[in-house]
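Entry for the shared binder. Reason: the reviewer on the internal report wants the predicted structure included alongside the sequence.
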Amino acid sequence: MSTRSYHQGAFTIVVLAVFCGCGGSGGSSGAPVAPILSGGSVPSTAPSATPTARPSSSPSAVPSSSPSATPSPTPTASSVGTITEFGSALSEPAGITAGPDGNLWFTELGGGANTTGQIGRITTAGVVTQFGGSLSAPAEITTGPDGNLWFTEEALNGKIGRITTAGVITEFGGSLLEPAGITTGPDGNLWFTEEGVNSMGIAGSGKIGRITTAGVITEFGGSLLEPQGITAGPDGNLWFTELSNPGTQNSSGVIGRITTAGAISQFGGGGSAVSAGDLITTGPDGNLWFTGSSGSSSFIGRITTVGVITDFGSLTAPYGITAGPDGNLWFTDEGNLSAGSGKIGRITTSGAITEFGSLSNPTQITPGPDGNLWFTETGNGKIGRIVP
């Protein structure tokens, strides 16, 4: 289990242990702090390459709480790498995505409690509104093909949630084993990962799940080891990361591919560049890009659709990653979990890395409708924006 994954309950991992007690479900967004900007290239390492149904339970509607909103002045940001932060009392914001309504939508884990999670919305002017308040560790979020937002609730008896842009929440499932990543597939369904860690903290029964917009869930696999991020690939398949692969001698992590029919293939493992894969996205170059680590080294990885893996850089703790509007990939580097050690990174498709900022545990990142990148800061309960 990656120390940066969102686990709740008896086997809470380091990140949540650090942040437990942040608590609260404040719905205000404070005035943005003064822009923070730092730069400096991080040389990349020499690349290494390794080729290589069940129906859901009846949905249960969860009424949302009355939204609370506090406007925040729109700051001026005119140079590449300029960072502005919004909010100050959000309860562990984690996943973030651009919504169909022109706003950004994000999840709030809810501190150390399992049932205080929320879904948040922030306008490009910085106005924050929150919904829910009784969700079980909502983690990742994505826009669905039906015009709603879909999210995972990463608990032992996990669920898949749906929220309309008006704030109405409905949950599906109830017996999923820690659903984590989620994305819209090329087949018009939502696809998600299930980490498969049981109540004793033992991994090895991870799955890939599919849910229709009507809430029917089907699962594939069953022996994956903590699959994490998932994204739709340029080849019509879904691609995902695994922390490690129990079928290899070295139990090294792999990058997985699943067709919309449920056929799974794995790449890497057994001494490849990947030891632990976190999140993954499709790049502007037609490849898949992911954050990962191998031993004490963390890096940005690239895998072609035929399975050739190359990794770049020597970073502290990269986690979220997305394609930016400037033709580059942008990622979060959580740092060493101390305040101010986190950064936002940019990597070109040729592997040149630059990092910006001095942040508190930046987690997920997404392109916004305003041409900027937006990210969550789990460590200080804020939403950030960076100019690409």
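Summary line for the report: Residues 14-19 form the longest helix (6 residues).
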